[in-house]
Backbone:
């Protein structure tokens, strides 16, 4: 049965904007947990991070060369170099105890602490070595080639804000602040309930009229992309008591529940009635293509998303609504996580007023071309696509040549 036929089975259909607003109103960050810095990549900070000390904690050399009093070099040039006596050496992790006095310098390595009395570093290529004497061949200003204390981060500064998704460079900064453990938003546990007498596990040998489970590997990947962790169980047969038990067990174990299959209005579509009986079925039937039979409810104040059994429709419903909830609970920005670009259409896109369309597109010759304008639930249309475009409910499509926004897979 097509999405269009299913839509006529609903008394009314909720707009995508209303469904999205419901998710935003009812879903919040989860609580914080402390984890090792080495495990924090990709997680969202639960609290602001404030520097408890300056970084660097001491003035250090930015070059291999010689630590000097800058004023000693002001008249130096290649034809008349300034001779300075080398009185020590400063290495990373080991400072030179001898202070620099007029007429003196200290051999220094990159990252080594600047010795007392010095206020500049002369790169080794701007010197000539004559035994224990360093001849400086150019003038240098105070502070030149020196990383000052607190130059990178000043004590008391807010370095990273709560909600930031930690990137590789952020972990480096946190390490420089001496943070071995970090407070991050807990990863939401997302239970996926697959229903259907005809469905067999992914990878199983198919016989007769059986259908392999394509939803679990697809949705698992999206959940992990969005910062969640998936909980799965055995495929549930189309029996009310079994589906009810699976949903209740999932609600008890997870932060979010996804029920794939049995979401429409047919005789064997059990999920909507069970969600209504166990809690609240807030939305059932959404004015979109594909995924019109999708629904949103709450049991024990936990969000439950009804995904159509068709894999592409399940993907679409996840991307629009469930993924938004997963990202929000994980402390991430709840909007689409895809890279966007603006490009002209090579062929018009037709749509229906009052319905949001999720259109798979390919990019060729610097233009956007729609894929599978009919057959909205064909999964391979997504595998052949570079991304997708969204046609809002108030539009009847876009003409050829129109510049549209494409989100890349």
Residues:
């Amino acid at each position: 049965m097509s999405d269009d036929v299913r839509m006529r089975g609903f008394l009314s259909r909720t707009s995508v904007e209303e469904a999205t607003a419901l998710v935003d109103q009812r879903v919040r960050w989860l609580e914080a947990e402390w984890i090792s810095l080495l495990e924090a990549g990709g997680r969202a900070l639960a609290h602001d991070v404030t520097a408890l000390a300056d970084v660097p904690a001491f003035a250090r050399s930015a070059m291999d060369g010689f630590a000097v009093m800058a004023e000693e070099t002001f008249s130096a040039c290649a034809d008349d170099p300034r001779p300075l006596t080398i009185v020590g050496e400063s290495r990373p992790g080991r400072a030179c105890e001898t202070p620099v006095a007029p007429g003196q310098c200290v051999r220094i390595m990159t990252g080594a602490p600047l010795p007392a009395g010095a206020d500049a570093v002369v790169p080794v290529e701007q010197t000539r070595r004559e035994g224990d004497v360093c001849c400086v061949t150019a003038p240098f200003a105070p502070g030149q080639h020196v990383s000052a204390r607190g130059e990178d981060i000043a004590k008391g500064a807010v370095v990273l804000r709560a909600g930031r998704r930690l990137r590789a460079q952020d972990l480096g900064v946190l390490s420089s602040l001496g943070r071995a453990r970090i407070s991050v938003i807990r990863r939401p546990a997302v239970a996926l309930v697959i229903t259907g007498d005809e469905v067999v596990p992914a990878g199983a040998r198919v016989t007769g009229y059986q259908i392999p489970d394509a939803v679990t590997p697809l949705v698992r990947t999206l959940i992990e992309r969005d910062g969640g962790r998936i909980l799965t169980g055995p495929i549930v047969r189309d029996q009310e008591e079994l589906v009810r038990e699976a949903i209740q067990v999932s609600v008890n174990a997870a932060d979010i529940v996804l029920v794939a299959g049995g979401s429409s209005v047919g005789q064997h579509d059990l999920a909507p009635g069970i969600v209504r009986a166990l809690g609240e079925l807030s939305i059932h039937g959404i004015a979109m293509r594909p995924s019109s039979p999708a629904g949103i409810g709450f049991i024990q104040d936990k969000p439950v998303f009804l995904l159509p059994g068709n894999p592409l429709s399940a993907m679409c419903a996840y991307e629009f609504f469930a993924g938004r909830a997963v990202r929000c609970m994980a402390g991430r920005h709840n909007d689409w996580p895809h890279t966007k670009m603006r490009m002209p259409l090579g062929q018009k896109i037709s749509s229906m007023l009052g319905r949001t369309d999720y259109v798979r597109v390919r990019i060729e010759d610097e233009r956007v071309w729609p894929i599978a304008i009919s057959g909205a639930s064909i999964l391979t249309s997504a595998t052949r696509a570079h991304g997708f475009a969204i046609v809002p409910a108030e539009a009847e499509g876009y003409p050829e040549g129109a510049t549209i926004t494409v989100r890349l897979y």
User: Anything to note?
Assistant: The CA atoms of residues 107 and 371 lie 66 Å apart. Residues 311-329 form the longest helix (19 residues). Residues 3-30+187-329 form a domain with the Molybdenum Cofactor Biosythetic Enzyme; Chain A fold (CATH 3.40.980.10).
